[in-house]
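Each field is listed here:
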Amino acid sequence: MPRSTRTPGGARDIARLAVPALPVLAAEPLYLLVDTAVVGRLGAVPLAGLAVAGVLFAQVTTQLTFLSYGTTARAARFHGAGRRSAAVTEGMQATWLAVVVGLAVLGLGQLLAAPVARVLAGSGEIADGAVGWLRIALFGAPMVLITLAGNGWMRGVQDTVRPMRYVLAGNALSALMCPFLVHGAGDWDGWGLEGSAVANVAAQTVSATFFLRALAVERRRAPASDPIRLAPDTAVLRAQTTMGRDLVIRSLGFQACFLSATAVAARFGAPSVAAHQIVLQLWVFQTLVLDAVAIAAQALVGSALGAARSDGPEGTAHARAVAARVTRYGLVLGCLFAIVYAALFPVLPGVFTADLAVLATIPVAWWFFTALQPVAGVVFALDGVLLGAGDAAFLRTTTLLAAIGGFLPMIWLSLVFGWGLAGIWTGLAAFMLVRLVAVGLRARSGRWAVPGAVRP
């Protein structure tokens, strides 16, 4: 039988990792979409309470995604070096970190839920509903973080299919339980808004249990000569926390930009903020799609560097080839999305709103959004390459510089000079272009391509 000549890290490998990763990335938004559809039937006040609480709870997954991305980068290097037990040990240690951080979030959340919800919603029924939902949902925080850690090490060993199954199982359970727990059945009236929080916790517990079981199976199957360490390892935890710090700071930079953009858009009136929100949600959807490609890049680049010998450029040639290939695919995908959104402009905005003032305002942001798709395709792909190489400190610094030097000044100048959405989305364009130059030069320099099972 002839030997396969398929290039490792090619289109098939990227699709094999990226396609199952997409439903996992969409898991938390899907939780909230199901909740919104079910709770919406209770009326405006419960729905408003869910909106406030959902934004607060979403910060858990938004700010703590280093448990996935950081773990993937470290586990992928060990996987590439042929050290599966060491790769899974990274997952074990990340799970310990998830439990500790999750319990801290649960405790602090119970203390802060009421004052924070009242700051966002004001005192009254909306704040009370948000607090009730949030205090129950917070019991799922450790489970969400265990799931993030599980995703991280499984992506590192290039398994994105099992995580997809685990997360979809949780989502299916939530979708089935939520209507019953919220609205009841027969003579039982249900638990109202709080029922959706219970459904989410149950679903998150199921998903986390699958990931814990996967760790237990790996540990049982590991050879006696190369066991998977169960006890906490302070050296590994310290390294994971260092990378996590950089990724959390980077994430805070994103949050500051997008929250400022929404706040300034609101100053220009309801049509502006509504139009901005519609296009921004499409942008968020696009980040899920492009993040799936970035995850594939992480796993493949990390593995290639882990397999590389420490003998100069020749040892990292495969990693650099994968980086170039992923970047091309990101560009092609971005160009295709630009064409699709340009073609859908006459019909897609009308799916979200029938308000004529909002529809008249949307084109200002729409064409920025469309034109930025190729840039986003390349930036997200290179983000994945650099994350896979463990180059989190560089990404942290350049993201903050792009925010401080590009996005934030344009946002607030838009408010001062009345530039409206055109100024806000010019700021987003500047943010993306600064990042494009930064990650492009970094990728071309090759300084990210440090070979070995562990990045120094």
About this structure: Residues 7-232 form one domain. The mean pLDDT is 87.
